[in-house]
Design goal:
Organism: Flavobacterium hungaricum
Pfam families: DUF6630 (PF20335), DUF7821 (PF25134)
Protein name: DUF4303 domain-containing protein
Structural class: alpha+beta
Number of helices: 14
Oligomer: single chain
Strand content: 15-25%
Number of strands: 10
Helix content: 25-40%
Length: about 350
């Protein structure tokens, strides 16, 4: 019956979805009554998630905010708010409410996701901005919400808001939104676990894990990392030796551990990897990747295509083998490539953050 009425009144409260009013409203209550902003780590999400409660007009009532509003062509923050409301089909703020200086809250949740296949050519990660406004649907009380979305950095916060677009989270318009929405569900679960907010039992949880439980880093952590980046192609004796050495240096925070020549780089030379100049030919890629995977890899590419422009064609060929080309970040003018099993990429990136051994997708 609940689902019937949710659909009948077009509310964002699907009882099975974590992106619902019954989940987001208690998060808002915490932000409003306890702590207006926090930052924390969610398993499976690159870097930290930031959560902030802002409000019109107060959050814009400072010199920088006034300058941004004027630069955008508006007289005050309420005009900006009404411009945003147009995007999400919410009626404008009445003049009498503006004169009274009434406050209108919104939540800004920000985190990084892996890039889509198209964006991956240019960026290693994509920033997600989820801007949540509350409203009333067929009710005199607040019982619903709308989301604006952007994948750009808010260097000018007012312009950043104005450049957002309405997000239909049930029907993403592109792969970037699709990836962002999938991760947003993890983030919402993580927020609830972090704040001890009970999630309705009807909700299908994105993950069965505790998403905020910090993982203890042990020698076994490094063993798992080495196993994954080598795809298991390493002798047991060498595996134990390398994991023991890396863990010891990690605990002591030795200079050698972070040295791009003596530390991680030296480790990668013990596994099947390809140290390449930043400029390489397709023939080089075919030869060395074939060596790494133990079989011939040929891929089609446009004429006069070299170096990083080859990545999409290499990845398409490897994907047929359930593999992906990755690189250790040398911070130099060279690449240190290795091949990973496609299913292991997410875990490798998690372990990369834990161990501080910097791995990038291409």
């Amino acid at each position: 019956m609940k689902n019937f009425f949710s659909n009948l009144f077009n509310r964002n409260n699907d009882p099975e979805s974590i992106i619902s009013f019954d989940v987001i409203d208690p998060i808002y209550s915490y932000l409003y009554n306890e702590q207006g902003s926090f930052e924390f780590k969610v398993k499976g999400i690159q870097e930290n998630v930031t959560v902030n409660l802002f409000y019109f007009p107060g959050s814009f009532d400072h010199d920088e905010g006034h300058a941004e509003i004027k630069k955008a062509g508006f007289k005050n923050s309420y005009e900006v708010l009404n411009e945003l409301y147009k995007k999400i089909n919410i009626g404008p703020v009445p003049e009498e409410n503006i004169q009274e200086g009434l406050e209108y809250d919104f939540i800004h949740i920000q985190f990084y996701s892996a890039p889509s296949a198209e964006v991956k050519k240019y960026f290693k990660r994509v920033l997600n901005n989820f801007i949540i406004f509350f409203c009333a649907t067929n009710s005199l009380e607040t019982n619903d919400f709308r989301i604006l979305y952007s994948s750009t950095h808010f260097t000018d916060y007012t312009k950043g808001l104005l450049d957002t677009e309405y997000l239909d989270f049930t029907n993403p318009k592109n792969e970037t939104q699709e990836i962002g929405i999938k991760d947003f569900k993890l983030v919402l679960q993580g927020i609830c676990q972090y704040l001890n907010i009970e999630i309705p039992t009807t909700v299908a949880l994105p993950s069965a894990e505790n998403l905020i439980e910090e993982e203890t880093i042990t020698e076994a952590t490094f063993e798992e990392f080495i196993q994954l980046v080598s795809r298991g192609n390493i002798e047991e004796k060498e595996l134990k030796k390398q994991s023991k050495k890396l863990f010891k240096d990690f605990k002591k925070e030795t200079k050698e551990y972070y040295d791009k020549v003596e530390g991680h780089f030296a480790f990668f030379e013990t596994i099947d990897a390809w140290n390449s100049d930043w400029k390489f030919d397709p023939e080089d890629a075919e030869y060395f990747i074939s060596e790494m995977i133990g079989e011939d890899l040929n891929f089609e590419y446009p004429e006069e295509t070299y170096s990083h422009d080859l990545f999409p064609y290499i990845q398409s060929a490897l994907e047929k083998h359930d593999l992906e080309l990755m690189t250790y970040d040398t911070y130099g003018d060279n690449y240190l490539f290795f091949v990973a099993n496609k299913d292991d990429v997410g875990r490798i990136l998690e372990l990369s953050q834990l161990t501080k051994i910097e791995i990038n997708q291409l």
